[in-house]
Amino acid sequence: MVKRHSILTLALLLVGAWAHADTAAFLREREQKFKPPAAAKDFHTFAPVRVATFSNWAKYFNSCTIEPGPQSRNLGQGQLPRPLSYSRFPVGGTRTLDDFVETYQVTSLIAAQGDTILEERYPRMRLASDKFASFSMAKSITGLLVGIALDEGKIASLDDPASKYVPAIADSAYGAISLRHLLRMSSGRIYSENYSGADDNARTLSSLESQGAITAINIFTGKPFHTPGTKFNYAGIESIVLNQVVSHATGQSICQYMQEKIWGPIGAQDSGTWQLDGAGQAMGQMGFAATARDWVRLGLMIVNDGKVGDRQVISKSYLDEATRMSAQPEQFHKGKGVNRLYGYGYQFWLHGENQPVMLGVYGQHLFLDRSRKAVLLITSAWPSTVMPMYSMNYSRLFEAFTESLDTPPTKP
Description:
13 helices, alpha+beta, 412 residues, four-stranded antiparallel beta sheet
């Protein structure tokens, strides 16, 4: 008996050693094929390092760790009702999901409905354990945190000015702007965010990274150019202001509040990370990273009207106000005052009436369909920050996905 046990133990050790060797060889090969950056910000100018950088953000940028709760949300395994295909813009013709993944530098893709993953892919030698950067998808998380603080009464009203909660920015251009107008990116201030390296966004990032959010916000002074609330103008600084409002209103760091109010309650399986600014605070406009499956868990909470099981993580009423096209003034509707693909709600882009989207540069997308309880996550490493034709085809793939589902849409 002892001899049989020893043989079994030796066999298990050998299997473990082979698996370890295979894993080590795989990691060496993927590092050779997808080079890590020599310096953290090399991804700005050297596209080949983007795959490695975007799937391990906290390795290169100082970040806090947001731990999961004691119990993760189980996700079942299923399959799509039919293989996904879409009509490619602008050349036409039907393209397959394989073509999509290869063409658009996709690094992870998960389609899910209810509690079931229908399709899951990790191209370019990525792994389910990789933590994918989101860039401006983090703005939508900031919007969710505002909603939770409002639900809890920590924020009294969305019509309050930001300076009520953050007195240190009272003299800035954003101190007198209401939270509602900040949520809709409609402060009235002309702020440039075109990723040229010489825009207002670049000034903000430089100050944010070196000195922190309060200093970055106070760079901007003067009165609004437009009446607040009347015109959409994409501006990451407004998400930074909202982030500070949440932290000051709750008396907690964003990392702590996120862990307690979202990451634990959604049943995240792995830790998330959030990039820190020069004052050691989580950035409100970017920097959050998580595994693909945990991004999907976050999306499933949203499409389930803010609930996970019996727990209401965020109120349905806030989500309705934040993510439904009909809840926004007309100038925030798709094709009206935003762009031809999306409208805008409370830090969410809006593809359709019940279809909010979390977007980030270089091709980060979390598409949500609240009526079908469906989620499509796509992370990418695009050749450039913003690529309109790529964006059109991502939208078309999402439409093909929702149309393929057996479950008919229902009114949230």
